[in-house]
From TrEMBL:
This is ATP-binding cassette sub-family B member 6. CDD domains: ABC_6TM_ABCB6 (cd18581), ABCC_ATM1_transporter (cd03253). Residues 259-549 form the ABC transmembrane type-1 domain. Belongs to the ABC transporter superfamily. ABCB family. Heavy Metal importer (TC 3.A.1.210) subfamily. It is a multi-pass membrane protein. Residues 842-852 have a biased composition (Polar residues). It catalyses: coproporphyrinogen III(in) + ATP + H2O = coproporphyrinogen III(out) + ADP + phosphate + H(+); uroporphyrin III(in) + ATP + H2O = uroporphyrin III(out) + ADP + phosphate + H(+); coproporphyrin III(in) + ATP + H2O = coproporphyrin III(out) + ADP + phosphate + H(+); protoporphyrin IX(in) + ATP + H2O = protoporphyrin IX(out) + ADP + phosphate + H(+). It comes from the Eukaryota. Residues 583-817 form the ABC transporter domain. Residues 818-829 have a biased composition (Low complexity). Residues 817-852 are annotated as: Disordered. It is an enzyme of class 7 (translocase). Its EC number is 7.6.2.5.
Amino acid sequence: MVFIQGYCEANSSISHTWVDEGISPCFYFTLVPTILLTISFFLGTIHCIFYQKYGTAMEPKFIPRSCLYGFQLAISVLLLIQFLGGMVWRAANGGELPGYVVLYGCFSALGWAWAIAVLRVERRRSLLMDRTRGHSIALLLFWAVAFSAENLAFISWYSPHWWWGLENNQQQVQFALWLMRYIGTGLLFFIGLKAPGLPRKPYMLLINEDERDVENSGQSLLGRTEDNQSTWQGFRKKVRMLLPYMWPRGNIFLQLLVLFCLILLGVERVINVFVPIYYKNIVNELTDGSSWNALATTVCIYVLLKLMQGGGAGASGFISNLRSFLWIRVQQFTNRVVQVRLFSHLHSLSLRWHLGRKTGDVLRSIDRGTSSINSLLSYIVFSIIPTIVDIVISIIYFITYFNAWFGLIVFVCMGLYLTLTIIITEWRTKYRRDMNQQDNNAKSRAVDSLLNFETVKYYNAESYEVSRFEDAILKYQVSEWKTQASLAFLNQTQNLIIGSGLLAGSLLCAYFVTEGKFQIGDFVLFGTYIIQLYTPLNWFGTYYRMIQKSFIDMESMFELFEEVEEVKDEVNAGSLLFTQGKVEFENVYFSYTNGKEILRDVSFTALPGQTIALVGPSGSGKSTIIRLLFRFYDVHGGCISIDGQDISKVKQTSLRAHIGVVPQDTVLFNNTIRDNIRYGRISASDQEVEEAALAADIHDKIMTFPEGYDTQVGERGLKLSGGEKQRVAIARTILKAPQIILLDEATSALDTQTERNIQASLAKVCVNRTTVVVAHRLSTIIGADQILVISDGRIAERGRHEELLVKGGLYSDMWMRQQQAQDSDSSSDTETKDRTSEKLQPPSTSSGHHGH
C-alpha cells in the first residue's frame, strides 16, 4: 500500500529553496511542473481556440510527410509515459510518496499531454492568415522551458539529495529518467526550430494555385525564393560552399595569419576573466590597507590587462586591433576569390540565362553577397563563438567562486535571451527578405529606365518613369518600416531580460555583502563581470541578426552559383582540329521551350570556302542556326559538325577561336574605338587595328574625330551611329581573322553606299573562308554559293539565286516583293524631288501678259 507521508520529505519545507549545496527537491519539483502546466494550459488553450475558430482543416495531400515529425511525436509520448512511470516505480519501491512527487508526476503528465494535443492541432489545421514558418510560440516556449529546467539540475551537482552520486538503485533509476528527459526535451526544442511536418507555404496559397502557379510564384531571374522559409534552411549546404573561402588554400602566409588570429582570440578570453578579478583585488587592497608596493603592482597589472582588453570585451583593445589589422589580408583574399569565381561562373552561363537576367538584380546580389561572406566569417569566428565561450566561463566561474544562485541567474537570463532572440529573429526574417526584394526591384527599375533613356524621351515619359520609381521606393519603405519596427521590438525584449538579470544578481550580491559573506570587492567583481558579459551579450542579438542578414544576402549569390551551365564541355573534350572548314548540319532539331520547335530536321552542307545564305521571314529560325553553329545552345536532335567533328564533343574555346561573328545588333564596350576593335584579338598592334578599320571602311571616319582612335564610344557605344557601330564590329571580326565567318544581317543598319563598300570589303575578307550569312536584303546575297529559304523551322527551298527565281517559289515571291518596294521607293523619291523643284522655281511671265 502506498502512503503519502506529507508534501515534502522529513526535515524539509517548500520554503527552503537551497539545501546542502543544491536546490531543494521539494521546491524544484513543485516549481517546474507548475510552470510547464501553466504554459501548456493557458497558451495551449488560446492556441487551440484560435486554430478552431479561425483555422481550417487541411486536406491530407497538403500535409507533408515527415519521419522527423513522427520521431518528434514519439519523444513527446515517451516523456509523458516516463513521468507517470517514474511516479509508479517510486511508489512500488518506496511505499511512501511525498506529495511533491505526486504533483510532479501528475502536473508534468498533464502538461505534456496538452503539448501533444497542440502539436497535433498544428499539423492538422491551419490558420487562414499567412503564417510564419515553424511552430507556435506556445510550443517553442514550452520545450525551451522544459529543456532549461532539466539543465537546472546541474546546479545541484554537490547536493546529496539529488542523484548525481549514483550510490544506490533509486539514484541510478532517477538519473536514468533525468537523462531521458534531458535528451528528449533537448531534441524536441532543436527539432522544433526546424518544424518538421508543417507546410512551408501558407495553406491558402497551396489550395488556390495550380502546379504551374506554384512553380512560378516567388521565382525571380535569380532563382526561386520562398518568403517564409528559414535562412537556416540548407545551412550545411551553405557552409559547404563557404568552406573554400574560410581557409586560404595554397597560401602558407595567410594560413599562419589565420592561426595567429585564433590564438589572439583565445588570449582575449583569458584577459576578459582576469580584468574584473584584478579590479576586485584593487578594491579589497584599498579597503584592507595593503602596502603601497602590492597595491601599485596590482594597479599596473590591471591597467596592462585593461589596455589589452580595451573598452570592454575586446571592443577596441590592443589585441583586438592587432587581430583586426592582421585579418585584413585574409578578408581581402576571401573577397577577391569570391568575386572572381562568381564573375567567371556568370560568364560560363548560357545565352538563354543572359537574355533573361536583370542586370540590376545581378549586380546588387554580387555586391551584397561578397560583402556578406566577409561579415559572416567575422561575426561567427570573432563574435558569436567568443560570446558563447564567455558565457560558459562566467557560469562556471560564478558557480565555483560565488554561489550557485549566481550561476542560475546567468543561466536563466542566457536561456531566455537566446531563445527569444532566435524566435523573434526567425519571425522577422521574412520582412528582411521582402525588403531586399523591393530594393532589387527599385534599383532594377532605375537601371532599366536609365539604359533606355532615349525611348523615355521619345514618348515624353519622364514623369511616368519618375512615378514608377517613386512607387518602387514607397513599396521598399513599407518593407523597411516593418523591418525596423520588428527590430525595435526585439531590442526592447532583450533589454528587459538583461535588465532583470542584472537587477536580481546585484540585489543578491549586495545582500551577501551586508551579511558579511562577501567582501566589497566581490560586489565590484560581480558588477564589472556581469556588465562585461552583458556588453557582448547585448550585441549577440545584433550578431545573430547580422548572420541572418548575411545568409539572406548570400541567398541570391548562392542561387547565381547554382545556375547550371546549359552548354558544357565534355569531361575529355578535345580541341577542334580545323583543316578545311566544311560545315554540316545533319537532321538538326531545336526548341527554346518544350513543345515549340524552332528548327525541324534541318540538313545542309557548306563546303570549304563556300558562302551559304539564310533567308526567310522573321522568326523562321535563321539566327538560331547561327547561334547553334557558334554553340550558344546545344541541339536537341541531330548533329552539327565542322570537318567531320561534332562540335558538341570539342571544347567551346577551340570552336569559337575559328569562328568570327558580326551580329545584327552590335553592343560596344564603354572604351575607346581602338580598344573595341582590338577586342577581336587582344594581342594585335595599333597598325593591325588600323588595317582592320581600313578594310571595314571606317578608318577615314575615325580620323575625322578630334581624338581619333582614342575616342570614347560611350555606354554600349551610344556615341556612335548605328552604321559606325556595325563597321567597328566588322573591323573587330576582320582583326580576329577567323576561318569561318557568320554574318547575322551585318549590313542592316547601313545606308546603300556604305553597304556596297562593306559588301566589297566582306567579299575580300570571306574569300577562301566558309561563310554563313543571314540576310534580309536579298540583293546582298545574289552571289552566294547556296541560298537556303527557311520557313517554319524547315528548309523550304535551296539553290543558287538564278535557280530559285526559275522555280517561282517562296524565294521568287520574296524577290519580287523587294523589287516592287524598291521601285516604289525610287518613284516616290523622284516625285518628291520634282515637287520640291517646282516649289523652288520662280513664277513665269508670258509675252501676252506684257501686251495686255
